[in-house]
Every structure is written in structure tokens, then in C-alpha cells.
UniProtKB/TrEMBL annotation:
Pfam families for this protein: GlnD_UR_UTase (PF08335), GlnE (PF03710)
Segments of this protein annotated with the region Adenylyl transferase: 458-957
Protein name: Bifunctional glutamine synthetase adenylyltransferase/adenylyl-removing enzyme
MF annotations from Gene Ontology: [glutamate-ammonia-ligase] adenylyltransferase activity; [glutamine synthetase]-adenylyl-L-tyrosine phosphorylase activity; ATP binding; ligase activity; magnesium ion binding
EC number assigned by the record: 2.7.7.89, 2.7.7.42
Domain of life of the organism encoding this protein: Bacteria
Region (Adenylyl removase): 1-452
Cofactor(s) of this protein: Mg(2+)
Job of this protein: Involved in the regulation of glutamine synthetase GlnA, a key enzyme in the process to assimilate ammonia. When cellular nitrogen levels are high, the C-terminal adenylyl transferase (AT) inactivates GlnA by covalent transfer of an adenylyl group from ATP to specific tyrosine residue of GlnA, thus reducing its activity. Conversely, when nitrogen levels are low, the N-terminal adenylyl removase (AR) activates GlnA by removing the adenylyl group by phosphorolysis, increasing its activity.
Entry's family note: Belongs to the GlnE family.
HAMAP family (UniProt xref): GlnE
Amino acid sequence: MLPFPDAVCPEHLQSRLQQQWQSWCEQVGNEAAGAVSGLLENDAARQIAVARAMVGSDFFMQQCSRNPALLQQLLGSDDLGIAAPDLTALDSEQALEKTLRQLRNRVNAEVIFRDFAGQWDIPAACARLTELAEVCIQAALDWHRERMLERHGEPRNRGGVAQPMVVLGMGKLGARELNLSSDIDLIFAYPEPGQSDGQSPLENQAYFQRLGQRLIKTLDATTADGFVFRVDMRLRPYGDSGPLVSHYAALEDYYQTQGREWERYAMIKARPVAMAGEGAAEAAEDLIELLRPFTYRRYIDFSVIEALREMKTLIQRQVRARGMTDNIKLGRGGIREVEFIAQAFQLIRGGREPDLRVRNILKVLPQLEAGGHLPAGCAAQLRDAYLLLRRVEHGLQADKDQQTQTLPPEPARREQLAFALGYENWPALESKLLEARTVIEREFDEVIAPPEESGEISPGEQWQMLWAGCARAEERDSWLEQLHEGGFQPASKALDLLLDLRGDRIVAALPASGRQRLDQTMPLLLAAASEVSEPLLALGRVMPLLRSILRRSAYLVLIIENPPVLTQLLRLCSASPWIAEQLARHPILLDEMLDQRRLLQPSTAKDIADDLRQHMLRVDPEDLEAQMEALRHFKQGQSLRIAAQEITGALPLMKVSDSLTWLAEAILQQSLQLAWQQVTEKHGAPAGTSAEEMRFAIVAYGKLGGLELGHGSDLDIVFVHDAEAQQYTDGERSIDNLSFYTRLAQRLIHILQTRTLSGSLYEVDTRLRPSGNSGLLVTSLVAFEKYQRESAWTWERQALVRTRAVAGSERLGAAFETLRIELLCAPRDEQKLREEVVDMRNKMRAQLDKSNDREFDLKHGRGGIVDIEFMVQYAALAWAHSAPSIVRYTDNIRILESLTEAGLMPAHQAAHLIDAYKAYRSEGHRLALQQLPGVVSGDQFEAERKTVETTWQQILG
């Protein structure tokens, strides 16, 4: 039988009360139930108190069921009090955790009961919850410190003075305004570095970090008894990326050089809430004195107004964007707006008005009115409105012991809340809430001359809000929704990227100006990324670049002031991880993107060579290191431009290879000039030579020789000369000519391959020279001819098809070309040549082909690129004696066209091979820009492969 008359509870809530009562009776037994029934008999106040608690809080019911005596104790006393646990009776960490959790659950249950019964007002409830936090933090700190002392001794400074640990409580804990389900925001500190004096000593930093970690675990871990408090350490210097605990000098340096306005805002409520060690009380006072100049300036601080205005505008935008009507903390006229009103005045005027340096909002409001900062009567109105919102907040959190400030949408839950708080029904409570929020909203709008507001929120403002608030876990769902709608899918990965950046140590260490520039850049970046085809891909690829330029924030200004640069940057990074990687390694390349017209304007070979000469004129000719860096910067910039032109379609495939080839030729010529200058300065020059006529040439093979360079291609080169090998140079440290040209080649390779801060220019391969690695690095033209006529293998003659002089003496280059034509046009036994070419192809395929049942190797697979190249080389070697015109060119496509012109291959057959070759190379370029291997799905290029294989059978059998 219910011990409650019907009048205690509205009719629509009586069934819930009956269920809760019966459930409790069944769990605690007849004796406990009977005792409580007796206390409730004929006592209307007690009946109402129990009814409200049972209807309004499942958490309260849960605690009373676990502790059968609790409800009787609450009814029999006005205050059960709170006593620190006896730590000497706790023999294990598990015992400590259980004791603190049971204490927490009992105190929270009592706060709920006293609040709903109307026995305690909100200040009393918050004070008790704050006292609970202080007791638990102190108990955990003391218990763990004793264990640390046993093993590691007392931490001391370098002068031997014992060092205490101070725990700063921030936010509501610091202001003694803790909620039922609040996190606690903490900062750990100790006075000075040093070392502990025990058998296993630790540096003070490690000592206090370990102590802090154990303290957090004791409070934060969830066990069978729940948790004590969720601990948030993100308000410490550098946030999550900073050290868990700091000594005073480090704190002072951080706040003087890195501290931002929001940290001053947070520091208003900072208060020592626990401490341990000799001299702890004095150390705590010293810490507060150290922090005070950062929080409160000595003058009326108008400099903070703009930061507060931005903070306020952000609050308003968030509310408008998300329509948080039912959120009594974050919505319009909510708790946060009251806090902002008070703390804005405290930051601006607290330096000159010490009376405003109070942490508790209910104490500062009358001070603001007394000082003329609020209109007469306003403090009382704000106080009443604030207390109502805080009481409703407690009612919301009391139900399930969850951190929420959102009014429930369900009518039944709203009625339960209204009853628990003593209102006749939900409309009555809702009306009071509306009045309170109207008061707060009006005063909030009056603070620091708000800028004109527009009714609509621009996309840019939405991205600004997301970046500013993405670390707030309670708003995660809304951020995910915004990212999803912006095309970032999956949105959770995009949010993780942003959170990783916000928490990065580099970001935390930025000066205020650098952080401001990052905060300006990120909304622009997100907005631009949302416009590309794959926003998440673009965002992920641009993050390494962003990290690399954070400390050089002039680049952030470049992006902020040049929106087209950002758009193009994201487009290119989205299309190519190679470009993204190059930009991240060499941010100076961003300069290339400033002139969009020039970036996408293809250059001729002459343009590239002229640009390089002009570029090198700006470098000290005596500074080799600077010259090498300049060459690398030029190559990287030009490579970026060519890649951008390829991605945007400004350059077709064949022109891309041409441009990359011309770039390599220009760099080889310039590098050779540098090498010549260095070697001649040391040894003099061979007789009859000069910088213009070196009697030395660089011969290109392979892709460079065939004008088919790709992104990241090596250079296959051979060095030739035609000077008298046994003669000597004319310098003071004279050497024979062969040694001179060998050193010239070695110096050139050094310039090209050496890794400087900007990397290398090109990887160089010289193994195609006569006799390969066992042969001389530099060969005379006569010796080259002799080797080719008498000793060269068939594959070396095949390689000769794609050779040409690319740098050095023009005269010698022309002589080499004459020799090349002569060698290629020599008559050959076609049958023997065919067998040797096929045999070589089969060996290569066996070693290099990565094709299988599912994949096709573009280069080495059957019917792929190398098959086309081998057919072209065979045709050139077999038929050039009767048609020399087919070896005029070194690139495969023009050789195929020449075969048609000479009547040696049907036009349709050559066209099919050209189309297949272009298709393979185009895909290969695309994969290279994606940093992927040249392997595609086995069902791709089926027609092209069939055509190539058919032609192979016709030509090579």
C-alpha cells in the first residue's frame, strides 16, 4: 500500500510513483520499507520530498535500492554531512576507488533529495557537490602521494627544499558551482624542478606526472560502483599536447608568451582545490599570485573587448545555426550567457576593481551593479534567472546521472521534471523558464556593444564555428552533421583530422598571432575543401602542408589573402598525393601558386632554360651550396607547375613528357656549367676547351633520350669526350684529360644526387655506358664507336635507338648523332636479331612482370609498354639500313609514324600501337601522381593488349 495520499502527486504521475515505490520496497525488504513508511505517515512534507525524488530521479532510486538505510537516514536528518575517508583503513587502490565512489553516490543522492524537497537551494547544493570534489581529490592525492613517498622519496628542488603539488580547480569547481554531473577541470602544478630523494629517485617532472596520472585514474575510471568525477585536463598549458603537470616558471612563461584571451577568461575561476606536501598552502598562494597578472591587467583592459566580442558573436552564431531552443546552457538566454556577462566585465575591469575578482557568479553580479556596470535591479533579475536555470539543470541531470542541459522532448518526461522541481505542471515551469531566459537574453545583447547581426549564417561563419568549437564533445553530433552535409564522408574521419590538428603540440605552441592566422585559415580551408570532388581526401592531404607552415605563418597570410591559391591548392592535393607531399616538404613552392595564370601556362624548352638562367643569376656564384639549393627549388617549382598543368588538362600527356624532359635538359646543362667551373678552378682546362666548348657531352638514354620522362623518373646518361686523353690540363694542379673528364662527371653526379635540405635533383644511372659498371665513367667517342661495333650486345643496340646528346658541346653532340645513325643503319641478320630480341624480352618478363590473373602490369605485362618498345627497337635495328629516316627520332611515337611514312608498317597498325602506347603512359602518369604502382585491374586495356599481342606475333613471331 502506498504511504502517499493522492494529493501528493498529480494523477498522471501516480502510476510512476507507485512503480518506483514498489520496486524499492521489493529490493530493500520489509524492515526498511516499514521504517520509511512509518516516517512518512501523516507527514506531508516528507511525503512530498520522497515522491518528488522517486518520480524525478532514477539515479536516486538506484542509490536508495543499493543502500537500504539511505532513505531512512535522509528522512531522519537535515544533513548527513560529508567526512573525508580514513585513508589508513584503505589497504589497496581498489578499496580507495570503492570508498570514493560510494561517497560520491551517497552525496549526489542527498543533493537530489534536498533539492527536490526544497530543503537546500542551488548555492547550498553546489557548495556540497564542490565540497565532495575537494574531499575526493584531496583523498586520492594524499593516498597516492604516500605510496610515491615510500618508493621514490620526497620531491625536492635543487636546493633540497621539499616540493608540494598543487591542484588548481577551474570552471565550476573553482567557482564552487559544481553540478550534479559536472566534469572537473584541473591543472596540476609544482614550484620548482629537481629530483626526489628516495631509493628509486625521479625527476620532479616525472614524479608529479605519475602522481597526477594516478589521481586522474582514481577519480575518472568507471568501475562497478560508477565513477567519482570525469576529469578534464584540456585547460592546462598547450592542452592535450602539453605536459600533464608544469612547474611555476614554465607556467609563468607560457601565460606571458602564449596565453590567449579565452585562457584569461577561464582563469577567472581558478582556485587551489587540493594540495599535498610540505609548504603546500604557501605554494598555493604563490601560484595564485603568479597567475593574477595574466588574468587581470593593471588597467581597464579595453584590449580584450574585441576578443570578447568575437567570443560573444560565436555564441550567437552557434545558437542560430543549431536552433538550441531547448538547451538551457548553450541556447539563447541560457546559463552560458549569464556567465559571459559577468566574466566579460571581470576581464575588462578586474585589474582596476579588486572587488570584481571573485569566482562565484552570484557574488560578482551585485558587485557589477554596485560599480555601475549593470542597471539598478538587474543583478537580482539575473540572479533569479540564473538560479532557476541551474535548478532545472540539476533536475535534468538527476534523472539518469548524465551530463545534459537539454529539456526532454517527451511530454511525460517534462511533467516528471516539473513535478520534481515543485511546479504544478510543465506549462507553469515553461512559463518561468521563458521569463528567465528573456531577462538573460536582453542583458547579454547589451554587453560590449554587439556588432550588427544578420538573420542568416553564411557558410563561412558555419565553418568558423565548427573550427572554433570542434573540441567540445557535447556538440560532436552537430559538427558531424555539418561535415557530412559539406561532403566530408565519413564525417567522423574529417572531425578526427581537425581534432588532431587542434591538439597538436605545434598548434599549442603557436604565439597568439600565429594562432589567430590559423583560426582565420581553417574556415577558409574547410569551405574550399567542401567545393572539391572529394573533400575528405583533400583535407587529409593538405594537413601535412598545414603543419609544415604553422611556424612560418607568413604562408598562412598568403593563403588568407589569396583565396584562389587555396582553391587551387586543394584541387591539386586532391588530385595528387605527390603534389601534396612535395608542397609539405617544400612549402616555398606555394609561391608558385600565387600567379594562377603563370602556374597553368605551358612553357617551351627555351622558356624553361631562360627561366633557369635568370633564377641562377640571383645566386652568389661563389656559394656552391646556395647554387645547389637554387637548382632544387627551380626543379621543384617547375615540376609542380607541370603536374598542375597535367591535372587541369592544360597539357596533354605527350607535352607533359616533353616539359619534364626539357626541364631535365636545362638542369643538366646548368649543373654541367657549375661542375665545369669547380673542376677548372682547381685543375685548369684541357687544351682548346672552354665553358662553351668543353669537348664533353652528356648522352641521354631511356626515357630522357626518348623524351618520355615522367614524374620522379631517373636519368639514364652516358658521358663522352673527344679530347686527347693523355694530354694535361693547364692549371697549377694539372691532371691528365681523362682524369679531368672523370672528375667533371663525378662532380656533375654529386650536384645532381646529393641530398641537401631540399632533397636531390635527380637519381642518375650510368650503367648503360660501355662495359657497364666495370667500364670507364667517361668514354671517348672513338672508344664508344669501337665498343658498339665490336662488343655491344643486342640489348645495347636496342638502347641506342633512344639515345641523343642533351647537354655539353653542341659540336660533339652532333658528332655523336652522326655516329648513332651510322651504327643503327648497319645491316643485320634479321632472323638472329629477332631471336635475340625475343629472348631478351622473355627474360625481362620473367624477372619483372607483376601481372597475374587479376592485375596487369602496364610496363612489363604481355601486350604492355615494353612490348611496344621492343617492337619499335627491332624495327629500327632491322630496317634502318634501307630506311635511315626511321631512326631520325628517338621517341617511340615518331618512330612508329616514320615506319608508316617509309612504307614499313601499315598506317592502321602503327596508329593502334600509338593509341595503346599513349593510353598506357597516360594511366602510368596518373598512377605516378597518385603514388601508386603501375599495375591496373586485369580487365582494363583488354583491346589495347590484344592489339599489341597480335602485332607482336606478326613482327616477332
